[in-house]
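Q: My collaborator sent me two sequences in one message, no labels, and asked for predicted structures for both. Can we handle them in order? The first one she listed is below.
A: Yes, handling them in the order given. First sequence, followed by its structure tokens:
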Amino acid sequence: MELSHELLVGLAKSFGLFWLIALSIGITAYAFWPSLGKRFDTAANSILDDEDGPAPAGTLRKEDGSCR
């Protein structure tokens, strides 16, 4: 059996399609898995836990200094 360019392109397109469908289903199942809800809620609120409020005008927080 000779591997022609058209055959390889067809296989690659089919494999890529099925791979992306399976990956999408897996990621969606992971995101909506009931036992992982607490982990996602903690991650969503963790950035808000250490805030004291807005910084006064003209001051830099320690995390702002490395961005400049």
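Q: And the one she listed second?
A: Here it is, processed independently of the first:
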Amino acid sequence: MIKFSELNLIEPLQKSLLLQGYEIPTAIQAQSIPFLIKGKDLLGVAQTGTGKTAAFSLPLLQSLTRSAIGRPKAGKPRALILAPTRELAIQIGDSIKIYGKFLSIITTTIYGGISQLKQIAALNRGVDIVVSTPGRLLDLINQNKISLKGIEFYVLDEADRMLDMGFIHDVKKITKQIPEKRQTLLFSATMPNEIANLAKGLLNNPVKIEVAVQSTTADRIDQQVLFVEKSKKRNLLSYILEDKGVSRALVFTRTKHGANRVAKYLEQQNIRTGVIHGNKSQNARQNALKGFKDGKLRILVATDIAARGIDIDKVTHVINFNLPNEPEIYVHRIGRTARAGLEGQAISFCDEEERDYLFDIERVIRKFVDVRVEHPFHAQNIRDAKKSFARKNNNRATSGANGEKRQKLTSSHKKKRPKGGNKHGIMELKNIKSQNSRKKRPQSGKN
């Protein structure tokens, strides 16, 4: 069993990790940090929740400290970390400040949606590390408020999400501003062709680390699916929330308008609710997150893009008001609960249009999601149709977690995906096994 104390990290970093109670690194941390300390480029296939922030932040802080040449120059950072959303950028920046608590490394976070004046003032004072979203960074580059000519360390986080959000061209423009002689890290949950090609152009003989979480789900999460007519979903949500055990829940919707409608409905039911999505202002999103973290809001309704970077402990339930059309998003969603050794519950509503999504999810997580029929809005016709679909696409049966037969797809199965499906496909990832994979671990560096 590897411990952080065995990873050759400098004493100030070890001190901050101990202060946070981190003793055992996650798989990606244990395998990445030794290579990154040596200056290697890295391609990491990993989702949020695997500990990648600490995996790249700790070696970065160590390298900057060992090569420090005095106070950083105004507008000329030495390290750049790109993130697709404001929430994730803020989370990364906060984590770096925690890990670097006993170091003289200066970090700032820049993103759109707020005034740039304070961000420019921070850059003018001089910073070592900039954590940024692509759009605001390009704005400041065009205004000559920041220069990337001195970047020695370049990190691209959640590259596939940047592709989905249309940022990939901005990323390429930014990369052209950075010296070719640098250490580069790229992290992505999946590896579509465009990201694979981007990685080839960015990385120099990289080490590749793969951590598969999209095909597995935490044992501590109780997963349930409730079949319901689309028109009855809000009624079902009210019914679920009558249970006071649902004390802090994330509710995921597919669209921004859907999130607004669900949040408005819950407020009308006198349920304290916040909502975050891409159309909300930065202040509104941060206020909603703070209220949810502080316990002032019982429910937080979110879209997937806005939820990137949410890292809140003690979330008791994740409720999929709409099933996602990409299985890996399902795993990312339910991973918001059962953190820090706690247990959690994931409840998914499935209407007649979402049967295919459920089938794909079960195929990827390699188990059936338990069906809950004890609720007043159960739609047996949708459940029966889902079973019929599974039988039709049967290749070979294996046991499912709930005692039913599990159906595998044949290699020639070409099911037509509903509109909005995953155009890049799903990459089956390989589990990285460690000696302590089945042992109860002390708290790990989850960021």
